[in-house]
Amino acid sequence: MFDHMFSDGYDDFVEGVDFYLSKEGYRVMTESYLVKRGYCCSNGCMHCPYDPKAQKGNRKLRPDVAKKY
Length: 69
Prior knowledge:
Layout: E1 19-21, E2 27-29, H1 31-37, H2 63-68
Antiparallel strand pairs: 1-2
């Protein structure tokens, strides 16, 4: 439904690992994917692992997230 919103690379993502579908049909990126991506996009992602949240280009992980990865 919303595939037109994503770049070509999104076809390689694994549902349940990199994202899940919300009940509205949106792709919700997981914390682990956002950590692997390596920077904040500033879109206010639900599982944003960066501190401060929603600051474009931010690469500083929250302390609780940094312990996991």
